[in-house]
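Summary for the lay section of the report: proteins are chains of building blocks that fold into shapes. Here we show the chain for Pyrimidinergic receptor P2Y6 and then a coded description of the shape we predicted for it.
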Amino acid sequence: VENIGPRCTYKEDFKRILLPAVYSFVFLLGLPLNAAVILKIWKARPNLSRNNIYMLNLATADFLYVMSLPLLIYNYASHDYWPFGELACKLVRFQFYSNLHGSILFLTCISIQRYVGICHPLATWHKQGGRRLAWCICGGVWLVVVALCAPTFHFASTGIQRNRTVCYDLSRPEHSLDYYPYGMALTCLGFLLPFMGVVVCYCRMACFLCRPVSYQGVSVATGEKRDKAVRMIIIVVAVFCISFLPFHLTKTMYLLVRTLPKAPCEMRNLFSVIYKSTRPFASMNSVLDPILFYFTQPRYRKSTRRFMLKVTTLKDKEREREREVKNMLMKESA
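The coded shape description reads as follows.
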């Protein structure tokens, strides 16, 4: 229960079931999936494409965030009890927002890269710099993410509620007005602007891919490139619709209501429940991002199929051996 104002309390019993369940799911799937993506890309590092460089950084951000989830699972399963100290509270909140906005920015980089490759296939300006430029862009993204999320170390903190130590997500209730300008700026710079860029890129790509294969004497894209681009559009749109858009809409409404001094407790509680119900799904991008890599990398899909084929073949051979052993034992006993 979170105290807001002298008389208003938030009833958040739903968090004890929803958040541990979703975070456990994300941890169990996100940890091996992102580790597999990192290892797969790292093995091919002498010949990394620019797209894979962005994917490597995206998977790294997701992996670091997933590693912090056990603390949150324990926290919410223990009725919001936070025994890990002030610094751990600030780090966990920073990891959440840095992963969230890092994922948004790296997905934006991937989308722009794909847009340029599809809509401007003959241009050479975007090929100058190659992998070195891609690494510099990734370094710039990390710097922007750190700068955007650094105030989290100031606002996120522990507090005492009903004789229990808790870790505040946004800020202490008494700092709601101070947090509001930063929260709105973070939403605009870390989500709205990149989202608008992604929408423009994909609208242009959709128009371009709807053209005939040869348009005005210029080859638009091969069938494989078209399929790869369509798959990426579908998955990235799904990531934004599931993880990013609902979270930022409900967070904006919650921040606004939280700063209204005359807002009734029922309204505050309603928007708190709506916002905090979408918050765990913002972490679902740590599971969806590796799926993006899988469906946009034909070689990775082929190697996965080969691995699965080997596993099933080994199982079939083992079963066949077991049958032979059973038959031999039956003959000997007869």
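Put simply, here is one thing we learned. Residues 82 and 123 are 54 Å apart (CA to CA).
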